[in-house]
Amino acid sequence: MNWLRLIKRFFIIMLFIVGFFVLLESSPKALSYESENHWINHSHRPWIIPHGGAKALYPENTIYAFNQTSHYDVFEVDLTLTKDNILISHHDLDLRHDLMVDTLTDDLLVRNNTYDEIVELIESNDYPYVRAFTDIHGNTPYATTNDPLILDEMLPMLLEDLFKNYPNKRFILEIKDVKTDEEDTFTLAAEELLELIDKYHMQENVLVSSFSDEVIEHFMELSHHSIHTSTATNETLKMVLLSAFRMDFFYRPAYAALAIPIDSALSDSQGELIGSLPRFVSLRIAKQVDGQWRTNLAQKALVDDAHRHNMSVIFWTVNDVEEMRLLIKLGVDGIITDRPDLLEELYQTLDI
Q1: How far apart are CA 197 and CA 206, in angstroms?
Q2: Adjacent-strand bridge partners of 94
Q3: CA–CA dist 145, 59 (Å, integer)
Q4: What percent of the residues of the chain are helix, what percent strand, and what percent coil, each to the nearest 5?
């Protein structure tokens, strides 16, 4: 009889706990990002955010690409620090991509070259990446051009020039620099970035990002949390897991935006971990495609959970029209894409 009474009490307590969490999960409010969040999009039309200047349409991270995509909602810019401490639009920490070479040598590191030296390397080698650039129609539109008005723009852009030329634009700025054996380059990059933001009064226009939690946390401390930032890898995972387990109510966000990949392959160990989770959890995180676990984060629950924390939701990199359509339906705030033209055409079709 005592055992039955204990079992009954146990189930009553468990039902109370489950009911408590269900109540919290259904609440429209939760611990919120405390600052006024300029990265919450109050329209039904997610911001169009060309990825690095629309990499499928134009040579990425060039002056030309940003000028050609300036009519879209937000610039997404990869930032790398030069030898003379200038932040330039550049995806990689070296110049192999620009020069179309395979072997990495110290003289090809962005950090080991001044901006003028980088320009000289690209120009003296006749713009190898730009010449080889293939557009969505399979053409190489810049293979033979000698138009100086075009070639002069086929170079990395100074962040300072972007701020000067587009003072009213929104910017997602991704710090690419990391800690090296020689120096903590990202600390110098963060200091230079903060100085430029202050100089051009861009505090409300920028969202600073990085794949590295260490980098973004350093920037937050340096700026005294005065500049909006987005979640890096580990912080994104933390929020995703809490949402999947329906326990995000207690999450206290320090970030203005949740940055989420639309589709990313998971490692074997990550796949095994996902497969071991309860099905109601795993389906909110990943899916199996041909035996490979891939992220499956375009979920209404995750978007809603982020919004009730006063966090913006931005997905990357979305090049499929049906995925764009789904994200619009979910009410995300922004879509980073290599094909902003497709997203713009979709808006025209949907009349939004």
Answers
A1: 8
A2: 109
A3: 14
A4: 45, 15, 40
Compute the residue count for the chain. Answer: 352
Contact 335, 327 (CB under 8 A): yes
Annotation: CATH topology of 41-93+157-350: TIM Barrel (3.20.20)
How many angstroms separate the CA atoms of 177 and 210, rounded? 9
What DSSP string describes 213-233? HHHHHHHHHHTTT-S-BB--H
pLDDT tens digits for 52-88? 999 999 999 999 999 999 999 999 999 999 999 999 9
pLDDT tens-digit series, residues 259-308: 999 998 888 887 888 888 888 888 889 998 888 899 999 999 999 999 99
Q: How far is CA 326 from CA 224, 292, 303, 332, in A?
A: 36, 22, 12, 9
From 20, 24, 23, select the one nearest 248 (Cα to Cα): 24
Residue pair 330/311 in contact (Cβ under 8 Å)? The answer is: no
- Domain ranges in the chain are 41-93+157-350
Q: Other C-beta atoms within 10 Å of 277: how many? A: 16
Contact 83, 94 (CB under 8 A): no
- Count Cβ atoms below 10 Å from residue 3 Cβ, excluding itself: 7
- What's the mean pLDDT when you consider all of the chain? 91
| Encoded tokens for 95 | 């110049």
C-alpha 105/C-alpha 62 separation (Å) is 23
Could you tell me if 58 and 68 are in contact, meaning their C-beta atoms sit under 8 angstroms apart? yes
**Which of 12-21, 178-187, 248-257, 339-348 has the highest average model confidence (pLDDT)?**
339-348
Give CA angle at 88 (84, 92), nearest 5°: 105
SS3 38: coil
CA quadruple 290, 295, 299, 304: dihedral, nearest 10: 170
